[in-house]
Design a protein that fits this description.
Number of helices: 4
Strand order of the largest sheet: 3-4-6-5-7-2-1-10
CATH architecture of the largest domain: Beta Barrel
CATH topology of the largest domain: Cyclophilin
Number of strands: 10
Strand content: 15-25%
Helix content: 10-25%
Length: 248
């Protein structure tokens, strides 16, 4: 009986070791793949798995929001909280993207890497360099007509590759709007900025998807921190998003 028990224990030990080795191999494959992953949604209800360590995805997420509904969110920073309304009718792709990344924990601990006093504060880059993103891009959603842009300007922007959708209800730039940062037409990812002043020159170039409802004093406080103007207006102080909570 003792010999049989010893054999059983040895067999169990070998099996446990094999499972551990397999788990380590799968982890290495996951890391070597750049941590790219698609999160699943259930019943179009934005039930997103919390994955705070994942900063790269293989494609734009599935649409899960109600396009006829406005959502609210709280951007919790180390300087205070910023409450915002997300306008689905104005930019459903951007709102869906923001909700997906927020609920998955993507924005946790990401810094404000660019601050221009009296203009805007920018964040959302997981690398903190100003050139990072979520691993995918998506198109602009702008209605030049609802923004009252002159046709000569619209034509000039269209020659540069911008396209406009008259089915949307675009929000004009003003103080306290949330807009997607980009590097040209249809290059939206995870980076976004909040304006510190009204600047109509931005109309037609960036997708606006929300507006600050309270906590503008926090945005202004961030906007007044000392920065290195020679390094793309990078703050000398560490200002970061603790987390973003979608409230409804």
């Amino acid at each position: 009986m003792n010999n049989i028990n010893v054999k059983k224990i040895a067999l169990f030990s070998y099996l446990a070791l094999a499972i551990l080795v397999l788990a380590l191999m799968l982890l290495l494959v996951y890391i070597s793949a750049g941590n790219k992953i698609n999160l699943n949604f259930s019943n179009n209800a934005c039930n997103i798995t919390y994955q705070p360590s994942v900063k790269k995805y293989s494609s734009y997420p599935k649409m899960c929001i109600d396009k006829n509904k406005n959502y609210t969110a709280t951007i919790e920073t180390n300087y205070g909280n910023i409450n915002v309304t997300l306008n689905s009718a104005a930019a459903p792709l951007a709102v869906n993207n923001f909700i997906f990344l927020s609920k998955s924990g993507f924005y946790n601990n990401i810094i404000f890497h660019r601050v221009i006093k009296g203009f805007m504060v920018q964040t959302g880059d997981p690398t903190g360099t100003g050139s990072g993103g979520p691993g995918y891009t998506f198109k602009d959603q702008i209605n030049a007509l609802s923004l009252g842009m002159p046709q000569v300007l619209v034509s000039a922007y269209e020659k540069k590759g911008y396209t406009y959708d008259t089915n949307l209800k675009s929000i004009p730039f003003s103080t306290g709007v949330l807009a997607m940062a980009n590097s040209g037409p249809n290059t939206n990812g995870s980076q976004f900025f909040i304006t510190l002043a009204k600047d109509t020159q931005l109309n037609g170039l960036y997708t606006v998807f929300g507006k600050v409802t309270s906590g503008m004093s926090v945005v202004e406080k961030i906007g007044n921190v000392p920065v290195n103007a020679k390094d793309h207006h990078r703050p000398y102080l560490k200002i970061y998003i603790k987390k973003i909570t979608i409230n409804n």
